[in-house]
Design brief:
The protein is α/β, with parallel strands linked by helices. The protein is built from eight helices and eight strands; from the N terminus they run E-H-E-H-E-H-E-H-E-E-H-E-H-E-H-H. The protein has one domain: TIM Barrel (Alpha-Beta Barrel). It is 33% helix and 20% strand. Strands 1-8-7-6-5-4-3-2 form an eight-stranded parallel β-sheet. The model has no long low-confidence stretch (mean pLDDT 98). The protein binds D-xylitol-5-phosphate and zinc ion. The site of D-xylitol-5-phosphate has 22 residues, from strand 2, strand 8 and helix 7.
Amino acid sequence: MNKLSPSILAADFSKLGEEVKKIDQAGAEYLHIDVMDGMFVPSISFGIPVIKSLRKKTSRVFDVHLMIEDPDRYIRDFADAGADIITVHYEACKHLHRTIQQIKECGKKVCVALNPATPVEVLEYVLDDLDMVLIMSVNPGFGGQKFIPFTLEKLRKLRHFISDRGMDIDIEVDGGVNLDNVEDIIKAGANIIVAGTAVFSGDKANNVKLFYDKMK
Ligand code: DX5
Ligand code: ZN
């Protein structure tokens, strides 16, 4: 099943709780939470205390996207704060296999993200341990960027790579997704859709509905 994961990076942080409740009530099944450290990516967003507070507002799946260097240092903290899925970047892990095991030991779902320039083949030996792969369709660091077209080809490649091995792994796509390109993105193989700007601008509840209509 295809699911929507609205990215709260595009929300109004001064009323984050209300915004999250609104999209929860509108039926979004996941909540995409972008953590940025000012090192792996240029921006700094928010961290563990914010996730802890939001955990009291909704029981939806917390899809925590860590855009931070050496994430091993904080896996346990994010797990305890309420993350359900923990995503680390291939490019930010010195010992990816160890990091993946750490997330599993915390009892959380594991996802590895690939920047646009990183080929899908780098995941060959760890695929067995993953619940999800995140294909970045923009260079991470900011909301509101333009979808990079060649990532559609990457999605197709990854979907084949996974199905050729008889596996069942979610593919999430993140960056520049909107109501005009979401159908092509799903056709290419993604089943978890992140959208920030396209959900949080204008009528949020209606945007969630429009996405689900297109994602059927
Ligand atoms: C980018 C973040 C995205 C971002 C998506 O670094 O990982 O999750 O919030 O925002 P939009 O949908 O506006 O491109
Ligand atoms: Zn993200």
